[in-house]
Structure formats: structure tokens, C-alpha cells
Automatic annotation (TrEMBL):
NCBIfam families cross-referenced by the UniProt entry: PRK09212.1
GO molecular function, one term: oxidoreductase activity
InterPro entries cross-referenced by the UniProt entry: THDP-binding (IPR029061), Transketo_C/PFOR_II (IPR009014), Transketolase-like_Pyr-bd (IPR005475), Transketolase_C (IPR033248)
Gene3D superfamilies: 3.40.50.920, 3.40.50.970
CDD domains assigned: TPP_PYR_E1-PDHc-beta_like
Highest taxon listed in the record's lineage: Bacteria
Key words, A-Z: Oxidoreductase, Thiamine pyrophosphate
Ribonucleoprotein as UniProt keyword: no
Signal peptide: none
Cofactor(s) the protein requires to work: thiamine diphosphate
Statement: the UniProt record of this protein carries the keyword DNA-binding: no
Protein name: Alpha-ketoacid dehydrogenase subunit beta
Biological source species: Zhenpiania hominis
Length: 324
């Protein structure tokens, strides 16, 4: 075991995959000389050179489109967007080109490409740099969507993303980058579509994404002292979504909460609740619950921002409503 920050674990995954496969290349704003806005690419320019680690202009549509072209020629580009909000700037390339080429070519062409970008609030980045875009992009077929929780998960899942023969959106929570974790000395790729039981329990299921896994674990520690045992599922990926693990847990607990930092409306919580209602409705003792950001833009002021962000306290309070 060793101690790494989340950002260092991401950097290690990139380094190891670039060493493993000379077709892995990187594009993004400030990923070279600066080492990335969140220091996830430190040292890679010096190690692999500027033909494989390319600083780009501030033109997301341009360099994402360039990545699509590179992938079509046999390279495996890893694109870094400074914030997930900028997926909207590159939306045509992401939604209409990258995601659809395999379908539109009848399988004759594929796009082995990964887009990494930070999600989440908590740094006073305001309404245009704090969004969690996972629910929106999940609407469009053709792209896998990954939401790693810990540093170990980020490293293993990123390796899988880079080796995938189809496009992957890899969404990293910006508030995790500087946190330190114990991770294995050697981390193997983690399969997509297979959730992780982060904590076993018998009273209620909490299906969580990204940093909400750790917040749910914190809430579960408090709840355990009150005799409520939470089972926490780290979804890992929402496309593909491991409904089987969720359903088996709900059969045991009879209750479900989905914790995700995206806005509540049309979010992953609604999708998971619908899947559970379709398959195991009569196992439910109560309606499915959600812990999300409310449906308002995120403000700059910390005094306004922090009350909106889903927290361990909000997970705790939501669980308590099931045990009055």
C-alpha cells in the first residue's frame, strides 16, 4: 500500500497507460508545462514529449474534434477539459460525432477516446464552472460514463477507460483531487458496469456516485450508532448501470436512497428509482429517496453555495426520515 492524492492516482494511471501503449496521447488546456489545472498531468510532458502531450488553445470544440479524428486513425486520445461545464462548448463533437460514429458507420469505425473532466461544487467556481453534467450526457447513447469515488477507484477505472475501444466520459470530482488515500501498489483495471459494495448493511440501501460515496459512508457511521445499518453501493459507472447489484440490495433492505451531486430533475436518482420500481416494486417498504443539488444554478458565494451542496448531513437526515 502507498499514500497518494486523488490527482496523483489519476496521473499514475495516465503515466502507466502511456508507457504501456504508445498510441495513448493527451490533449488539453495547460496539461503540459503547467501539469494540468488540478495537477493531474505533472511530469508527463517531460517524460513523453510534446508529440504525445499537447497543450491546446482555449477551443474545446476544436481539440475535442481533433481527438475524434486522432481516434479514427488508431490513436487513443485522452482529452482533459478544465471543467465538465465545457462539455457544452464541445457538445456537437461529443454528442453528434464521438458518440455516434460507431453506430453511423455500421461498426466499421470506432472512437477509442476518453474525455476527463472535473465535476462538482465547493470551490466557489460559480454557476458556469461547478456543474455535475452526468445526467445530461447519459441521455445520449454511445458513450460510457464513469464517476470514480476514491483514488484507488479513479486509477483502476481510468485504465479501463483508456483501453476501451469506444468513447468514455470520465468525471472526476474536483473536491477530491487533493485528498490523500491509501491505495494498492499495483492497481488493475476495474471493469465497467459492476458496482462496488462500499459498506454492507441490512436496513437501507444508499446508491451513490463519486464523492457522495464517501459522504454516505460518513453518514452511515453516525447512523450505525443509532442502530441503522446502511448498505452503500458505489455505482462506479452510470452508463453502463449495474442495476443487478442495486436490486439485490433493495431485496434485502426494502429501502433505497440515491445520492448524486447533479441536479435532482431527471437525474440518475430518477433512473435508478425507475429501474427498481420496474423490477422489485413489491420489495419496497417506502418510496425511493434522492439526495441531490436543488434545481437552481450554483452561486459563487460560499455562504450561498455550501447550503446547496449534498453533504453527509443531508444523507443522514434523509435516511432518518425512513425510521421515524
Amino acid at each position: 500500500m502507498k499514500e497518494l492524492t486523488y490527482a496523483q492516482a489519476v496521473c499514475e494511471a495516465l503515466d502507466e497507460e502511456m508507457a504501456r501503449d504508445e498510441n495513448v496521447v493527451m490533449l488539453g488546456e495547460d496539461i503540459g508545462f503547467i501539469g494540468g489545472n488540478f495537477k493531474c498531468t505533472v511530469g508527463l510532458l517531460e517524460k513523453y514529449g510534446d508529440l504525445r502531450v499537447k497543450d491546446t488553445p482555449i477551443s474545446e470544440q476544436g481539440f475535442v474534434g481533433m481527438g475524434v479524428g486522432m481516434a479514427l486513425t488508431g490513436l487513443r486520445p485522452v482529452i482533459e477539459l478544465m471543467f465538465s461545464d465545457f462539455l457544452l462548448v464541445a457538445a456537437d463533437q461529443v454528442i453528434n460525432q464521438m458518440a455516434k460514429i460507431r453506430y453511423m458507420s455500421g461498426g466499421q469505425a470506432n472512437v477509442p477516446m476518453t474525455i476527463r473532466c472535473p465535476i462538482g461544487a465547493g470551490r466557489s467556481s460559480a454557476a458556469q464552472h461547478s456543474q455535475s453534467m452526468q445526467a445530461m450526457v447519459a441521455q445520449f447513447p454511445g458513450t460510457k460514463i464513469v464517476l470514480p469515488s476514491t483514488a484507488q477507484e479513479a486509477k483502476g477505472l481510468l485504465k479501463t477507460a483508456i483501453r476501451d475501444d469506444d468513447p468514455v466520459l470520465f468525471l472526476e470530482h474536483k473536491m477530491e483531487y487533493n485528498k490523500k488515500y491509501q491505495i494498492d501498489d499495483e492497481v488493475e483495471p476495474i471493469p465497467f458496469g459492476k458496482a462496488r459494495i462500499a459498506r454492507e448493511g441490512t436496513d437501507i440501501t444508499i446508491a451513490a456516485t463519486s464523492s457522495m460515496v464517501m459522504k454516505s459512508e460518513e453518514a452511515a457511521e453516525r447512523l450505525a450508532k443509532e442502530g441503522i445499518e446502511c448498505e452503500i453501493i458505489d455505482l462506479r459507472t452510470i452508463v453502463p448501470l449495474d442495476t443487478e447489484t442495486i436490486i439485490e440490495s433493495v431485496k434485502k433492505t426494502g429501502k433505497l436512497i440515491v445520492a448524486d451531486e447533479a441536479h435532482e430533475r431527471c437525474g440518475i436518482g430518477a433512473e435508478v428509482a425507475a429501474a427498481v420500481a420496474d423490477e422489485v416494486f413489491y420489495y419496497l417498504d417506502a418510496p425511493c429517496g434522492r439526495v441531490n443539488n436543488p434545481n437552481v444554478p450554483l452561486p459563487f458565494s460560499p455562504a450561498l453555495e455550501f447550503p446547496l451542496i449534498p453533504s453527509a448531513d443531508k444523507v443522514y437526515e434523509k435516511v432518518k426520515t425512513y425510521f421515524k
